[in-house]
From TrEMBL:
The keyword Transcription regulation applies. Keywords: DNA-binding, Transcription, Transcription regulation. Residues 28-47 bind DNA. PANTHER family: HTH-TYPE TRANSCRIPTIONAL REGULATOR BETI, HTH-TYPE TRANSCRIPTIONAL REGULATOR RUTR. It comes from the Bacteria. Pfam families: TetR_C_43 (PF21597), TetR_N (PF00440). SUPFAM superfamilies: Homeodomain-like, Tetracyclin repressor-like, C-terminal domain. GO terms for molecular function: DNA-binding transcription factor activity; transcription cis-regulatory region binding. It comes from Acrocarpospora macrocephala. InterPro entries: Homeodomain-like_sf (IPR009057), HTH-type_TetR-like_transc_reg (IPR050109), HTH_TetR (IPR001647), Tet_transcr_reg_TetR-rel_C_sf (IPR036271), TetR_SbtR-like_C (IPR049445). Residues 6-65 form the HTH tetR-type domain. This is TetR family transcriptional regulator.
Amino acid sequence: MRADAQRNRARVLAVAAEIFASEGLSVPVHEIARRAGVGTGTVSRHFPTKEDLFAAVLLERMKELSEQADALTGSPGAFFTFFATLVREAAANRGLAEALGGAGFDVEAAAAQAGYDVTARLNALLASAQESGEVRPDITYPDVKALMAGCLSADLSDPATLDRLVAVVSGGLRGTARDS
């Protein structure tokens, strides 16, 4: 790929990531192109559909989250740290929150196919935390996902609200290891 094409692709991805995060998935491609300073044809050459563009943005973030989960593996409190990271990430990224909520793009399947299976990593951290007694043994991944969605249903304009919700949920998930 030519250097200018690489720069244009990188610029489109950066602008799209910013727009999807702040405004969600409904922003039209021509608006992304305009803000990136390129034509819609340039966007289409790199990303034939809006879903392709969104997938590229999300997969980059899923890669980063996967790396964070991998770095936490084996450390005390890893599940709670990663849970909080995911909630904060979704709260700060409207497009990701919409995708995780099922808004027309299966981010979990796409990430798993690319090798960035955040769901599997969260499940592994959950299982490890349950084995060590950090998390209650009756908690399932669907429970965790529902709790994450619950945290995101609040007014998130105040970061202290989100921090408080994450702390309350984490407290409810804790197992017997916290008492030792």
